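User: I'm putting together notes for a lab meeting next week and I want to include a structural view of one of the chains we've been expressing. I don't have a solved structure, so I'd like a prediction I can at least talk through. The sequence is below, exactly as it appears in our construct file.
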Amino acid sequence: MTVLASALDETSAAYAANAEAMIVKLAEIEAEQAKALAGGGPRYVERHRARGKLGVRERIELLLDPDSPFLELSPLAAWGTEFAVGASIVTGIGVVEGTECLISGSDPTVRGGTSNPWTVRKSFRAHDIALANRLPVISLVESGGADLPTQKEIFIPGGRTFRDLTRLSAAGIPTIAIVFGNSTAGGAYLPGMSDHVVMIEKRSKVFLGGPPLVKMATGEESDEESLGGAQMHARTSGLADYLAADEQDAIRIGRRIVARLNWRKHGPRPVAPPAPPRYDPGQLLGIVPPDLRIPFDPREVIARVVDDSDFDEFKPAYGTSLVTGWANVHGYPVGILANARGILFSAESQKAAQFIQLANQADTPLIFLHNTTGYMVGSQYEQAGIIKHGAMMINAVSNSAVPHISILMGASYGAGHYGMCGRAYDPRFLFAWPSAKSAVMGPAQLAGVLSIVSRAAAQAAGRPFDEDADAAMKEAVAAQIEAESLPMFLSGRIYDDGIIDPRDTRTVLGLCLSVVHGAPVRGTAGYGVFRM
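Assistant: Thanks for the context. Below is the predicted structure for the 532-residue chain, given as structure tokens.
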């Protein structure tokens, strides 16, 4: 056994300060997430209920197996924009009839469930996850189509939604649409391109053009039922495969469709029964300092996440600012890369490249725990080859074929974000803790660089340097970069899949590992040229 020893002191002032700061951040994030839970607000929610309809989250709850978890994705999408937090759609992964499914539900209380630019981005991310992990897709549809005032940002990229559905089907991944209300214009293609379609009598309306548009285009007088009602589609057009009596019946039918899919995972099962960590996961609240310049030992995190706190460390005496090693999480074998002191040097880069190759050789998924300021700079390190060694690590990450899961715990700056499998490197999942920050570099460093450049430009031009203006510029730039590096800002732009409570890290990783094993888990033997 190689059980990690913990040196964490819950009675220390540092631990208490860290935990207090984390709790404050969690409260801020929960307040923002509550906005998504509130939908379009009391007025529109009450009007929706007065029509005898369930809310989107109630529909999802009825669809899921009793007492099963729901891993919501991108709940803060559109945060900090003119659009409602959540982007008028709920996406996530849940278990239906024993099968993990990607579930997407439009929220009709938010501008009639219309799609804005962030809605389509959030949908694209959900479809990517479904395709990569072989997840059946269930769409709970009640949408007025595109948000017309922003059509210029939706129309052209939005067509990918329908392409995604056909590609999922072509890959043998079932797609199911349950239509609860209107699905009009381009939205009509959502059920039109799904493998299975459920409609509700006297509720579902699916048509390319409603009565006013038909009147304008052809002069024909028509009504909604004859144009796109559930009865018509069930009896005449054949678009509806199943006709439900009400919402509950539609959800029942959707569950039966999943039960009949004969769905099987293509990845290996866990190799051992899950064993809880030997240390309290609640202690994860007090590990990361609010000042990310202060290092922390990621082994304290690993000890509270992996099975039985058992971790076989790889090259522990070499490249010590990066911790690498093997463990199980909920019975699944994993390799872990975790930043220990922030900076990545040549040794750490080479160590990471070798470790990633070994994980691919053993068909083992990788977990990246971020707290990095990036690769080391300076003449000594440039001469030692930091560029080619960093490129070696990034090459290995880029061409690795086993599933990657990234957790941003602290800093994730510069090319270190890339080497640790940031969003651009297509991890299967990427979540952030409330303490995380990500940007080109830290706010003070970025402002300082701009100041040095401005000072040099003034000197070269022979003009006096305005110290007061420089101080104001540095303060403004640092404030801007600080705001743009915070997890809510990044989550609002769907640069992560959600901000999680550190105490939930093991549970989230377990859910993600179960999901990624829906597809085959195979490494690669092929890489680009490694510059030695």
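A couple of points you could mention at the meeting. The longest strand covers residues 175-184. The CA atoms of residues 288 and 296 lie 7 Å apart.

User: Perfect, that's what I needed.
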